């Protein structure tokens, strides 16, 4: 009984995959065709009049669309690879700052540490700002 259920489930998954895969390919083709046509129409409408550039064909518009995808990232469908790489970079920078602060902390004397603690409590690292300093004559 249990084996029959898994066979049916596997068959159902395979059937779903056989239906979804061609639909996904068709969707990609339709999206590319609409996107290429849209880019071609906009280019041929604006670029020659505004910048004196030549008209482009459908295939050149597809190439332009692909180039924009490569240079600027996703089509707004949740890809956004550049965002995650930026977070990783910021994380590395933050980690490096922590390491350097730990190294500096280890090299400080107890008096310097206490001075540092008191200075960070004032908000500006213990330094006076131009607004705090007395006016010069």
Please characterize this protein's 3D structure.
This protein has 137 residues and is mostly helical. The protein has two domains: 7-72; 80-110. Helix content is 76%, strand content 0%. The protein is built from four helices and no strands. Helix 1 packs across helix 2 (58-72). The longest helix is centred in the N-terminal third of the chain and has 50 residues, at 2-51. The model has no long low-confidence stretch (mean pLDDT 80).
Describe the structure in brief.
The protein is mainly alpha-helical.
Count of helical stretches: 4
Q: How many β-strand runs? A: 0
Q: What fraction, in percent, of the residue positions are helical?
A: over 70%
N-to-C SSE string, H for helix and E for strand: HHHH
Largest sheet: none
Catalogue the unreliable spans: none
Number of domains: 2
**Into which percentage range does the β-strand content fall?**
under 5%
What structural category arises from helix and sheet content?
Answer: mainly alpha
Evaluate the radius of gyration.
30 Å
> Could you tell me the mean pLDDT?
80
Task: Give the CA-based shape.
Answer: flat
* Terminal-residue CA separation: 96 Å
Question: What are the key terms here?
Answer:
137 residues, 2 domains, flat, mainly alpha
């Amino acid at each position: 009984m249990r084996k029959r259920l898994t066979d049916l489930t596997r068959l159902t998954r395979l059937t779903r995959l056989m239906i979804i895969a061609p639909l996904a390919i068709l969707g990609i083709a339709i999206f590319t065709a609409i996107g290429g046509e849209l880019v071609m129409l906009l280019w041929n409408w604006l670029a020659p009049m505004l910048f004196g550039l030549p008209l482009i064909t459908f295939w050149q518009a597809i190439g332009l669309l692909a180039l924009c995808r490569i240079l600027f990232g996703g089509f707004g469908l949740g890809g956004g690879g550049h965002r995650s790489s930026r977070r990783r970079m910021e994380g590395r920078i933050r980690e490096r700052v922590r390491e350097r602060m730990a190294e500096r902390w280890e090299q400080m004397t107890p008096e310097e540490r206490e001075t540092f603690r008191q200075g960070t409590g004032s908000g500006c690292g213990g330094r006076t700002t131009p607004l705090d300093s007395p006016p010069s004559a």
